[in-house]
Write a structure and sequence with these properties.
alpha/beta; two-stranded parallel ribbon; globular
Length: 134
């Protein structure tokens, strides 16, 4: 899958992306989502405009979520942020509301299996409250 303003990509890139998605559509294992020409704020604006065009007069969380680029996906349980940056950088702004964040100083090109395991172990030790108190 790919999320973002895909229409803004060069035609040749879109064609290759669509070809790859078709080729892999039957796979049932790991799900990979590519964020291309993506911005979280723009995703929210696009969702609002899509809802306005549909004529819906009252919007709840479910209706709003159905109009996001990620409508077919669950919200992330964990976001791993590389490079030690303490921000989400306009990425999945709505979807990360109750996600756990793991920050590592490791840069993305250097991120290895062991780093991933460290993130998963850290995540497994957390008590998720989804906005509730301790």
């Amino acid at each position: 899958r790919a999320i973002g303003r895909l229409e803004g990509l060069p035609a040749a890139v879109r064609q290759e992306l669509e070809r790859a998605i078709r080729k892999l559509s039957g796979n049932r294992g790991l799900i990979v989502n590519l964020a291309l020409n993506y911005g979280g704020r723009q995703e929210i604006v696009d969702a609002v405009n899509k809802i306005i065009r549909s004529g819906v007069r009252e919007v709840g969380e479910d209706e709003f979520s159905r109009n996001l680029y990620t409508a077919e996906l669950r919200d992330p349980d964990l976001m791993i942020r590389t490079s030690g940056e303490q921000r989400i950088s306009n990425f999945l702004l709505y979807q990360l509301a109750y996600s756990e964040l793991y920050v590592t100083r490791t840069l993305w090109p250097d991120f290895k299996r062991e780093d991933f395991y460290d993130a998963i172990l850290d995540f497994q030790g957390r008590q998720r409250r989804f906005g509730g108190s301790a």
